[in-house]
Amino acid sequence: MTEITRDVVIVGAGAAGLTAANELKKAGLSVVVLEARDRVGGRLWTDVVDGAMLEIGGQWVSPDQDALKETLAELGLETYSRYREGDSVYIGPNGELTRFTGEIFPVAPETEKEIVRLIEVLDDLVAQVDPDRPWEHPDAEALDRISFEAWLEEQTEDQEARDNIALFIAGAMLTKPAYAFSALQALLMAASAGSFSHLVDADFILDERVIGGLQQVPLLLAERLGDDVMLDQPVTEVHWSDPSTGSGDGVRIVTDNGLEVRARYAILAHAPILYPWIEFVPALPRLKQQMHQHISMGFVIKVHAVYDRPFWREQGLSGTAFSPYEISHEAYDNTNHGDERGTLVGFVSDRNADDLFRVSAEERKERILESLSHYYGPEAKNPVVYFESDWGAEEWTRGAYAASFDLGGLARYGADLRTPVGPIHFACSDMAGAGYQHVDGAVRMGRLVASNIVEAARR
C-alpha cells in the first residue's frame, strides 16, 4: 500500500475534476487527481480510428458557454464553425424527405403553427426557471409529477408537433423516452441552454468545434498538474469523518491498485450513478442514498461515418438532418477542420438504441447506415470508416450524455444533489445549472466546488 497526503483529493480526471484541481492549486492547496481510466477526459475523448480523428465523446461549443470559452482561450485552443451551408433535410411520418432552411421543420401549415406555439409556451415557462434551482418554480411539484410526453399531450392534439418538440429534449438531449422524465426536467434542460428556442436552433447549440478535438481541454489541464494526476486508480473506498460525532477530520481514500490518499477534503467529480461502486465508511446519509436511486443515465449511440469526400455538399446539402421517425433521429456534417474527407455524425437514442443492441453488430451497422441513406442517398451506405461511440459500455460512465431524475425526483431531491457530506464535495456536468450535461457545465461545477473548498479551508 502506497500512502500520500494532500489537502484535496479529486476522484475523476474529467473537465470538472481537472478544473477544480487547477483552481485549488492556484489557491495554494495541494491536490491529487485519481482517475480510473488509462486516460484523462472522462466523457471527452478524441481518438484516431482507422486513420480518422473522431470525437468519440462531447465536441460542440455554443455561444452561451462562457465558462468553456474562457477555458479554451486560456489554453490557447482555437475553434471553427460547424459546416451549415446549403439545405437541411427532414423526413416526416410518411417517410417523405423535404429540404428546408431555417429552424422550423417543413411540416403542414397547421402543424407548423402548433410547433411555433409550443416553442413560445415553453420559452415562457423556461424564462421562469432558474437552472440552478428549478425546484423553486411555483409549479415545480406539479410539473415534476407529469411526464414530458403527457404534458405535450395536454398542450396539443397534433401528433407530429408533439413528436418534433419531444425530439429536442428526449432524443437529442436527455436521450430517454419522453414518458420517462418530467416536464420540470425538460424545462431544466432548456433553461440550462438559455431557452427552448436555443435547443431548437442547431446553429446555436451545435455552433463550433475545437481544432484538434475537445479532449485537449482536459489533456492540457492535466499537463499543468503533472504527477498529481494518477491514472488507472479506480477508487473503491472513501472513509470520512462525521463532524457530528467528532470522529476525526478529513478523508482517507483507497484505490483498487493499492494507493491510499489522506486529505482534508475530497471531490467526487464523476457521474453520480457511479457512487454505488464505492464503499463509503460510514455510509452516505440516507437522503443521499435515496436520491441516487432516482437518477439514471440516458442511452445513445453516436455514429461516425467517414467518406472519401463530403458528397452531400455536392447535392447542396448542409448535412443537417432530422426526423423523429428515423432510427438516426438527427445527423450533421462533422468533417474535421482542414480534412478533405467528409464525416457525418448521427445519433440513435433511447428505445431505438435498445432495439439495435438486440441484434448483431453487422445488422446494427446496416440499419444505421440505411437510416443515414434516407437523408443523404445511397452513397451514405459505404463509408470508408465506421465507428459507434457506445458510452453505455464504458465502465466508468455507463450511459450518455448525463444523469437525470425520474418522475418526481428533481423537485424532491434536486436541492440535495450538490450538498457536501462532511469533507466530501460533488462536481460534474450532471449537476450543473447553466451548461447542464455539457462541458461548460463541468467547468462551472469545477470552479464552484473549488471556490467552496477554498472558502472552507480558510475558516
From TrEMBL:
FAD binds at residues 35-36, 235. Its cofactor is FAD. Belongs to the flavin monoamine oxidase family. Residues 16-453 form the Amine oxidase domain. The gene is puo_2. Keywords: Oxidoreductase. Substrate binds at residue 347. One of its GO terms (molecular function) is putrescine oxidase activity. InterPro entries: Amino_oxidase (IPR002937), FAD/NAD-bd_sf (IPR036188), Flavin_amine_oxidase (IPR001613), Flavin_MAO (IPR050703). It comes from the Bacteria. Its EC number is 1.4.3.10. This is Putrescine oxidase. It is an enzyme of class 1 (oxidoreductase). It comes from Microbacterium terrae.
